[in-house]
Amino acid sequence: MTPASAPPPRAAAELVDGTRIRGGLDQPVTGIGAPVGRPDGAAKVTGRAKYAGEEMPAGTLHAVLVTSTIASGVVTDIDAGHARRVAGVVRVLTHESLPKLAPAPVPPAAQSFMPMQDNRVMYEGQPVAIVLAETLEAANEGAGQVKVTYRAGPLSTFAAAESVKPRSENNGYAFAEIETRAGQPPDPSQVKARIDETYSTATRHHNPMEPSTTLAEWRGDEISLHDATQWTYGIRYALAAMLGIEPRKIHVRCPYTGGGFGCKGYVWPHQVLAVLSAKVVGRPVRLNLTRQGMYTGSGYQPEVVNRVQLAADAGGRLLSIVHDSTNVSSLFDDYVEFGAAGTRGLYASGEIATSTKVRHCNAGTPTAMRAPHEGPGLFALESAMDELAAALDLDPLELRLRNYAEVDPADGRPFSSKKLRDAYLEAARRFGWEKRPARPRMMREGHWLIGWGMASCIMSTFRFASSARVRMRADGTVTIETGTQEIGTGPYTVMPQIAAEVLGVPLERVKLILGSTDLPETGGTFGSSTTLSTGSAVKDACEKLKPKLPLLEKMSEISADGVWKPHGDVGFDATGGKSGYSMHTWGAVFAEVAIDESLGLVRLRRAVGGYSAGRIINPRTARSQMIGGIVWGYGQAVLEESVMDARYGRYLSKNLSGVMLPVNADIPTDIDVFFVEEHDPHASAIGARGIGELGATGVSAAIANAVWHATGKRIRKLPIRLSDVIA
User: Fold this and answer.
1) Is the predicted pLDDT of residue 172 greater than 70, yes or no?
2) Residue 706: in which H helix or E strand, if any?
3) Which of 26, 32, 374, 594 places its Cα 20 to 30 Å from the Cα of 723?
């Protein structure tokens, strides 16, 4: 009999957080689709979760980097005499002290230039010496005593550098073409309206809660590392190539990463320098980047300038889309921010032409940042679409619906799954979009001008080959083993849900072990890829385990290994590869802003986001991801910029006192996100696609479009400043 205090039975299909879940009457819903909480949550908030920076083997030395104060030139002298006399300092290392390395493979190395292999200085903040000491305090004091002399060289900045075609296919980063063209230019007589404008987004940094940390220890000819990383296997492969040793002799462990957003995705110089330092001194070495060090030591999202040209006929049909994107990169790498990546797949058009160029500067190499490529690019495209709608006297949503792409507009492939139209219409209904006045400056509350804006969202579907092992004991407990990483996105929750679903066991009997190169290999936790890729491998392992279940009558434990790869048996693809389908995630975001023209304040009052992203494994954690993405997009729109002093090639502020980020007071409680019910059988074995970065796309454009609707002022450069909106 059901106790009186028990909750009523859940219906077979019920909406939870806007997402339909599965489960029969009187049956607990713990598998795929259940909004269960995070099993690792208590460990994180109570401090039981152990991060890389908390590892401290006996004899560990603390390393502090001495970094360059110039952005271009050479080191002519390093005087470490005073530093060596500091009590507790054991060694001061320079480029003359460290072993020489083979060229860095990019990726998994983040940049091809490795500091402290010679005396060259290529960017400000570059490591030029390392102080090793028994305590962190002594290492910091010693670092302050090191005197470095330079001979400055010519300085190249973004504004002055020439825009050039990348010298290579992006040093291995490329997932899209540098130049594309589909269709033909329109007949001028058919063109009713044209837009030709330039839009730019600022250089920004990731600012995770946990700065990057590496603990390196040599054990004979093998290396043991504890690292704050988004890709344990990436570290193994990069170090193996640079050091010339077998990958199996490099062991990387990372059970938790305190946020990354891309800056911990690849291998940066500090990780390599920690390994080399440990080799030289024969003791474990722990190297923590400071908050200041994160600004020059682990990448950034580069400034991107986008020129977008649109042409449409009298009916609002797009006749041409031309999108040219240029981004900053280092002198030594061709990092390409594919600003037109989303443009290629979002709207039907008679002509779609895109190109990408870079400007080489005295700065470190940029890296992926939530959301790379589509994030900066969609601000441009979706702002231009809003301008086109105004020129045609069309509602912005109606313009997008008239140009809805039923197949990939660049190559005609069918989409693996797409329910963006449903997301548009439901999000508009929830927001009350039909009440929006067409002309700007028509809504006011007291001294606040009110504006409504919207934008489309799109993100490539990154997929990585992955593997997993599933074990079941005779007592019914299940253990999943996989080398994937936990960066706050919820694998400790969703992987057990997948196993519980396939094996038919209670969720509380399933646990996950992850974050080690001693476990089955997966790709990195970036590109919104972990749930769909590693989750598919977990499902495969569980399916292989099921026929072995009768063996538990005679054995104490059974196990099975699962593997999943994108179509064509490849290790990686981003937009469908050889599957025959074009794969993306989709969404629509609607925003309301309030503006005080006398002070230049822009306040986000509410937002609605609707998303088409395949099967949702856990609606609770997924909803949190999308809310976080909207907060991220708000920061891009009105706050975040890492300003470079062009005179010195130096960031003006390398800390959170001089760089503005969203805080609780900036964000309204009225953020409504939902997912369209969907199952994508082509993108993954579990029907899911990626969501983590999708929520950060389109938001800045929706806010800028709302600012125009409130004020009549079109802002084409982010972040939106006080001076941009002051009357």
Assistant:
1) no
2) helix 699-711
3) 374
DSSP state for residue 110 in the 8-state scheme:
S
**Two tokens, residue 106:** 């990019």
Q: How many CB atoms lie within 10 A of CB 179?
A: 12
Burial of 280 (0-12, 13-18, 19+ CB in 10 A): middle
Containing 445, the helix (H) or strand (E) segment is strand 443-445
Contact 176, 662 (CB under 8 A): no
CB of 682 closer than 8 Å to CB of 583: yes
Both structure tokens of 666: 């900036």
Q: Where residue 326 falls among pLDDT bands split at 50, 70, 90? A: very high
What is 24-54 written as a DSSP string?
-TT----STT--PPPTTHHHHHHT-S--GGG
Q: CA 275 → CA 1, 250, 284, 292, distances in Å?
A: 62, 11, 9, 22
- pLDDT value at 493 more than 90: yes
Dmax of the chain from CA atoms? 84
Closest CA relative to residue 204, chosen from 662, 630, 707? 662
Question: What pLDDT shows up at residue 415?
Answer: 98
Instruction: Tell me the three state secondary structure of residue 520.
Output: coil
CA distance 641 to 651: 10
d(CA 395, CA 559): 57
Name the residue with tokens 């989709």.
Answer: 586
d(CA 573, CA 463): 6
Distances, alpha carbon 112 to alpha carbons 95, 120, 262, in Å: 17, 14, 18
pLDDT in tens, 599-623: 999 999 999 999 999 999 999 999 9
Query: For the chain, what percent of residues have pLDDT higher than 90?
Result: 93
Taking a C-beta distance cutoff of 8 angstroms, is the pair 314, 194 a contact?
Answer: no
User: Which residue matches tokens 């110089």?
Assistant: 269
How many other C-beta atoms can be found within 10 angstroms of the C-beta atom of residue 434? 9
User: Phi, psi at residue 549, to the nearest 5°?
Assistant: -55, -40
Q: Given its phi and psi angles, is residue 577 left (phi above 0), alpha (psi -120 to 50 degrees) or beta?
A: left
SS (H, E, C) 211-261: CCEEEEEEECCEEEEEECCCCHHHHHHHHHHHHCCCHHHEEEECCCCCCCC
Sign of the torsion angle spanned by Cα atoms 296, 299, 300, 306:
positive
Phi, psi of 6 (to 5 degrees): -75, 150
- Cis omega (within 30 of 0) on the bond before 371? yes
Over residues 370-385, mean pLDDT: 97
**pLDDT band at residue 169 using 50, 70 and 90 as cut-offs:** low
Q: What pLDDT score was predicted for residue 171?
A: 57
Residue with tokens 């290579």: 168
**Category of 38 on φ-ψ map: left (φ > 0), alpha (ψ -120 to 50) or beta:** beta
Phi, psi of 198 (to 5 degrees): -115, 135
- Whether the pLDDT of residue 3 is over 50: the answer is no
What is the rounded distance in angstroms from the CA atom of residue 452 to the CA atom of residue 590? 7
Per the prediction, the chain carries an average pLDDT of 94
Q: How confident is the model at residue 495 (pLDDT cuts 50, 70, 90)?
A: very high
**pLDDT tens for residues 570-602?**
999 999 999 999 999 999 999 999 999 999 999
pLDDT tens for residues 4-52? 333 333 332 233 333 333 333 334 457 999 999 999 999 999 999 999 9
What average pLDDT does the segment 555-563 reach? Answer: 97
Between β-strands 304-312 and 318-330, what pairing exists: parallel, antiparallel or unpaired?
antiparallel
Whether 88 contacts 133, CB under 8 Å? yes
Which phi and psi angles does 247 have, rounded to 5°? Answer: -55, -35
